[in-house]
Design a protein that fits this description.
There is one protein chain. The protein is of the alpha+beta class. It folds into 2 domains: 182 residues, Distorted Sandwich (Deoxyuridine 5'-Triphosphate Nucleotidohydrolase, Chain A); 30 residues, no CATH class. The chain has 4 helices and 14 strands. Strands 2-3-14-9-11 form a 5-stranded antiparallel sheet, with no helix packed on it. A 4-stranded antiparallel sheet has the order 6-7-12-10, with no helix packed on it. A 3-stranded antiparallel sheet has the order 5-4-13, with no helix packed on it. A hairpin with a 4-residue loop joins strand 4 and strand 5.
Protein backbone atom coordinates (compact mmCIF):
# COMPACT_ATOMS: atom_id res chain seq x y z
CA UNK A 1 0.00 0.00 0.00
CA UNK A 2 1.06 3.54 -0.68
CA UNK A 3 1.62 5.77 2.31
CA UNK A 4 0.97 9.44 1.74
CA UNK A 5 3.08 11.94 3.65
CA UNK A 6 1.08 13.85 6.20
CA UNK A 7 1.46 17.63 6.33
CA UNK A 8 3.50 18.94 9.27
CA UNK A 9 1.42 19.93 12.28
CA UNK A 10 1.69 22.95 14.55
CA UNK A 11 0.07 22.55 17.97
CA UNK A 12 -1.08 25.24 20.41
CA UNK A 13 -1.69 24.00 23.95
CA UNK A 14 -2.79 25.75 27.12
CA UNK A 15 -3.49 24.84 30.73
CA UNK A 16 -6.79 22.92 31.14
CA UNK A 17 -8.18 25.75 33.30
CA UNK A 18 -7.56 28.25 30.48
CA UNK A 19 -9.25 26.30 27.68
CA UNK A 20 -12.47 28.03 26.72
CA UNK A 21 -11.58 31.09 28.83
CA UNK A 22 -8.71 32.78 26.99
CA UNK A 23 -8.88 33.77 23.33
CA UNK A 24 -7.64 31.00 21.02
CA UNK A 25 -5.19 31.14 18.10
CA UNK A 26 -6.73 30.87 14.65
CA UNK A 27 -5.58 30.52 11.05
CA UNK A 28 -4.78 33.99 9.75
CA UNK A 29 -7.13 33.47 6.80
CA UNK A 30 -10.07 33.24 9.20
CA UNK A 31 -9.25 36.52 10.96
CA UNK A 32 -9.32 39.01 8.11
CA UNK A 33 -9.44 42.69 9.14
CA UNK A 34 -12.76 44.47 8.70
CA UNK A 35 -11.33 47.13 6.37
CA UNK A 36 -10.15 44.42 3.97
CA UNK A 37 -13.52 42.67 3.98
CA UNK A 38 -15.23 45.96 3.07
CA UNK A 39 -12.82 46.77 0.23
CA UNK A 40 -14.25 45.96 -3.23
CA UNK A 41 -11.99 44.03 -5.63
CA UNK A 42 -12.50 46.74 -8.25
CA UNK A 43 -13.19 50.43 -7.77
CA UNK A 44 -15.30 51.31 -10.79
CA UNK A 45 -14.91 55.02 -10.07
CA UNK A 46 -11.15 54.77 -10.44
CA UNK A 47 -11.20 52.98 -13.79
CA UNK A 48 -9.73 54.79 -16.77
CA UNK A 49 -7.92 53.93 -20.01
CA UNK A 50 -4.68 53.66 -18.02
CA UNK A 51 -6.09 52.29 -14.74
CA UNK A 52 -8.06 49.06 -14.39
CA UNK A 53 -9.37 50.08 -10.97
CA UNK A 54 -8.12 46.93 -9.23
CA UNK A 55 -7.67 47.33 -5.48
CA UNK A 56 -5.18 45.63 -3.17
CA UNK A 57 -7.82 42.94 -2.67
CA UNK A 58 -6.74 41.59 -6.05
CA UNK A 59 -3.04 41.64 -5.12
CA UNK A 60 -2.21 38.02 -4.33
CA UNK A 61 1.17 38.69 -2.65
CA UNK A 62 -0.59 41.12 -0.28
CA UNK A 63 -3.36 38.60 0.36
CA UNK A 64 -0.90 35.76 0.93
CA UNK A 65 0.95 37.81 3.55
CA UNK A 66 -2.34 38.65 5.22
CA UNK A 67 -3.44 35.01 5.40
CA UNK A 68 -0.22 33.05 5.98
CA UNK A 69 0.22 31.23 9.30
CA UNK A 70 -1.79 31.81 12.46
CA UNK A 71 -2.95 34.76 14.51
CA UNK A 72 -2.12 34.82 18.22
CA UNK A 73 -4.76 36.94 20.01
CA UNK A 74 -4.70 38.83 23.28
CA UNK A 75 -5.84 36.37 25.96
CA UNK A 76 -8.00 38.84 27.93
CA UNK A 77 -8.90 42.53 27.80
CA UNK A 78 -6.14 44.91 28.92
CA UNK A 79 -6.16 48.63 29.75
CA UNK A 80 -3.00 50.59 29.00
CA UNK A 81 -2.44 54.17 30.18
CA UNK A 82 0.31 56.13 28.44
CA UNK A 83 1.60 59.30 30.15
CA UNK A 84 4.65 61.58 30.48
CA UNK A 85 5.01 61.90 26.73
CA UNK A 86 5.09 58.14 26.26
CA UNK A 87 7.71 57.52 28.95
CA UNK A 88 5.29 55.82 31.34
CA UNK A 89 2.93 52.93 30.59
CA UNK A 90 0.66 51.48 33.28
CA UNK A 91 -1.41 48.37 32.66
CA UNK A 92 -4.54 46.96 34.27
CA UNK A 93 -6.87 44.04 33.62
CA UNK A 94 -9.81 42.18 35.14
CA UNK A 95 -8.33 38.69 34.89
CA UNK A 96 -6.70 36.30 37.34
CA UNK A 97 -3.45 36.02 35.35
CA UNK A 98 -0.73 38.59 34.80
CA UNK A 99 -1.31 40.08 31.37
CA UNK A 100 1.46 42.69 31.04
CA UNK A 101 4.92 43.04 32.57
CA UNK A 102 7.99 45.16 31.78
CA UNK A 103 11.59 44.80 30.70
CA UNK A 104 14.30 46.86 32.43
CA UNK A 105 15.08 49.95 30.35
CA UNK A 106 18.79 49.08 30.00
CA UNK A 107 17.86 46.03 27.92
CA UNK A 108 16.59 48.22 25.09
CA UNK A 109 18.69 51.37 25.52
CA UNK A 110 18.90 53.26 22.23
CA UNK A 111 15.98 51.42 20.64
CA UNK A 112 14.30 53.55 17.93
CA UNK A 113 10.92 53.46 19.68
CA UNK A 114 12.29 56.12 22.02
CA UNK A 115 12.02 56.60 25.76
CA UNK A 116 8.92 54.49 26.29
CA UNK A 117 9.29 51.33 28.40
CA UNK A 118 9.59 47.89 26.83
CA UNK A 119 6.41 46.10 27.85
CA UNK A 120 5.46 42.46 27.45
CA UNK A 121 2.11 40.83 26.68
CA UNK A 122 1.80 37.50 28.47
CA UNK A 123 0.88 34.58 26.25
CA UNK A 124 -0.63 31.41 27.70
CA UNK A 125 -0.27 29.19 24.63
CA UNK A 126 2.68 26.83 24.14
CA UNK A 127 3.60 26.28 20.49
CA UNK A 128 4.99 22.94 19.29
CA UNK A 129 6.31 22.14 15.81
CA UNK A 130 7.87 19.00 14.30
CA UNK A 131 11.65 18.39 14.43
CA UNK A 132 13.54 20.87 12.28
CA UNK A 133 10.73 23.45 12.28
CA UNK A 134 10.77 26.89 13.92
CA UNK A 135 8.31 29.77 14.04
CA UNK A 136 8.70 33.43 13.27
CA UNK A 137 6.65 35.65 15.55
CA UNK A 138 5.94 39.10 14.14
CA UNK A 139 3.39 41.91 14.13
CA UNK A 140 0.31 40.86 12.13
CA UNK A 141 1.22 41.44 8.49
CA UNK A 142 -0.63 44.19 6.62
CA UNK A 143 -2.63 44.94 9.78
CA UNK A 144 -1.10 48.18 11.16
CA UNK A 145 -1.84 48.77 14.84
CA UNK A 146 -1.94 52.41 15.97
CA UNK A 147 -1.44 51.59 19.66
CA UNK A 148 1.49 49.21 20.01
CA UNK A 149 4.24 47.42 18.12
CA UNK A 150 5.42 43.99 19.14
CA UNK A 151 8.99 42.92 18.46
CA UNK A 152 9.64 40.08 16.03
CA UNK A 153 11.50 36.93 16.96
CA UNK A 154 12.32 33.40 15.83
CA UNK A 155 11.86 30.50 18.25
CA UNK A 156 12.88 26.87 17.73
CA UNK A 157 9.55 25.46 18.87
CA UNK A 158 10.60 21.90 18.12
CA UNK A 159 12.77 22.00 21.25
CA UNK A 160 11.51 25.02 23.19
CA UNK A 161 8.15 23.83 24.46
CA UNK A 162 7.03 26.60 26.79
CA UNK A 163 5.06 29.84 26.68
CA UNK A 164 6.55 32.67 24.62
CA UNK A 165 5.69 36.14 25.87
CA UNK A 166 5.57 39.08 23.45
CA UNK A 167 7.68 42.21 24.06
CA UNK A 168 6.13 45.41 22.71
CA UNK A 169 6.36 49.19 22.74
CA UNK A 170 3.40 51.51 23.00
CA UNK A 171 3.26 53.85 20.00
CA UNK A 172 0.05 55.72 20.94
CA UNK A 173 -0.08 59.24 22.31
CA UNK A 174 -0.71 59.87 26.00
CA UNK A 175 -4.11 58.55 27.00
CA UNK A 176 -6.04 55.54 28.27
CA UNK A 177 -6.60 52.69 25.85
CA UNK A 178 -8.50 49.41 26.10
CA UNK A 179 -7.31 46.48 24.00
CA UNK A 180 -10.05 43.88 23.83
CA UNK A 181 -9.73 40.16 24.33
CA UNK A 182 -9.11 38.47 20.99
CA UNK A 183 -7.30 41.42 19.41
CA UNK A 184 -4.64 40.05 17.01
CA UNK A 185 -1.27 40.83 18.58
CA UNK A 186 1.08 38.55 16.64
CA UNK A 187 1.26 36.46 13.50
CA UNK A 188 2.93 33.04 13.68
CA UNK A 189 4.60 31.62 10.57
CA UNK A 190 6.26 28.20 10.75
CA UNK A 191 9.26 27.37 8.56
CA UNK A 192 11.65 24.47 8.13
CA UNK A 193 15.18 25.34 9.10
CA UNK A 194 17.70 24.85 6.29
CA UNK A 195 20.83 26.48 4.98
CA UNK A 196 20.62 28.60 1.85
CA UNK A 197 23.59 29.88 -0.11
CA UNK A 198 23.46 33.47 -1.35
CA UNK A 199 24.30 34.13 -5.01
CA UNK A 200 24.76 37.71 -6.28
CA UNK A 201 25.50 38.15 -10.01
CA UNK A 202 24.30 39.68 -13.25
CA UNK A 203 21.37 37.96 -14.89
CA UNK A 204 21.78 35.93 -18.05
CA UNK A 205 19.99 36.86 -21.25
CA UNK A 206 17.62 33.93 -20.72
CA UNK A 207 16.82 35.11 -17.17
CA UNK A 208 16.24 38.67 -18.43
CA UNK A 209 13.84 37.42 -21.10
CA UNK A 210 11.99 35.30 -18.56
CA UNK A 211 11.74 38.25 -16.16
CA UNK A 212 10.27 40.49 -18.87
CA UNK A 213 7.79 37.79 -19.92
CA UNK A 214 6.59 37.30 -16.34
CA UNK A 215 6.30 41.05 -15.75
CA UNK A 216 4.24 41.59 -18.90
CA UNK A 217 2.03 38.57 -18.17
CA UNK A 218 1.40 39.78 -14.62
CA UNK A 219 0.56 43.29 -15.83
CA UNK A 220 -1.92 41.77 -18.27
CA UNK A 221 -3.90 40.21 -15.43
CA UNK A 222 -3.59 38.76 -11.95
CA UNK A 223 -4.71 35.36 -13.20
CA UNK A 224 -1.20 34.62 -14.51
CA UNK A 225 0.32 34.82 -11.03
CA UNK A 226 -2.44 32.70 -9.55
CA UNK A 227 -2.10 29.98 -12.19
CA UNK A 228 1.67 29.91 -12.72
CA UNK A 229 3.42 31.09 -9.55
CA UNK A 230 1.11 30.86 -6.56
CA UNK A 231 -0.28 27.45 -7.53
CA UNK A 232 3.19 25.89 -7.60
CA UNK A 233 3.86 26.41 -3.88
CA UNK A 234 2.32 23.07 -2.95
Amino acid sequence: MFEFARPPRITFTCAPADKGVIAEPAPAKTAMPAWFKRLPPVDAGAQSPTNNGLTVKRCLPFLDALTVGWILPLAATVRLEVSDGGQTVNAGWDFDREMVSYHPSFQVAGHPFGAGPACKFHNFWTIATPPGWSVMIMPPLNRPNPLFQILSGVVDTDTYRSQIHLPFFMTAQDGLYEIEKGTPIAQIVAFKRSEMIMDVRSETSEEAADRDRILRSTQAGAAWYRQNARAKRA
